[in-house]
Amino acid sequence: MTTMPDKLTSSEPPNAAATEAQQAASAARKIYPIVKYGDPILEKPGAPIKKFDAELKQLAEDMFASMYAAQGVGLAAPQIGLSLRIAVVDVTGGKNPEAKIVLANPEIVHAEGEVREEEGCLSIPGFRGYVLRPQFVTIKAHNAKGEPFEIRGENLLARAFCHEIDHLNGILFLQHLSMLKRDLIKRKIKKLRKQGEW
Ligand SMILES: [Zn+2]
Prior knowledge:
This protein is of the alpha+beta class. Helix content is 31%, strand content 23%. It has five helices and seven strands. A five-stranded antiparallel β-sheet has the order 1-2-3-6-7. It has a two-stranded antiparallel sheet with strand order 4-5. The site of zinc ion (ZN) has 6 residues, from α4.
């Protein structure tokens, strides 16, 4: 998921210190290219994670590195071409290591309230839309070691949890928009694809 308006993400350089720290942290990491809208993998549910091994831990760290490189606050495995139920979230964008959350096989157990806020998606770059999401959500998931946990998120964190869990179910934020807005975005993407810009 992305949170910053497009003009910030596309034209203003990111904070230099944060970028250096991210580069140092991701020096040994694999940066995956982000799959864009139109690839069918984004619209099919991922398979549950069954093996919590060293490979999975490495995948989670590579997903964080890939997410930071793309300046996102959430990334789900289908977005890097893997149809698996794992996502990573960090609403601080790499500023606070304690804010890194790995969600393997996550499920929403409780949702409360409603907030309508603009959101974007790394797989649908350049397009944003207002999406109604719960203000609070409690989810249960497993971390990269396979340990179960529950976590409650509010506002942006709740939104990120919902957006990423949607990805694991093959749902994109476009599906939460009005048909008019959704069709408009789809038409623009079609045009970009014809021009070889998507
Ligand atoms: Zn997304």
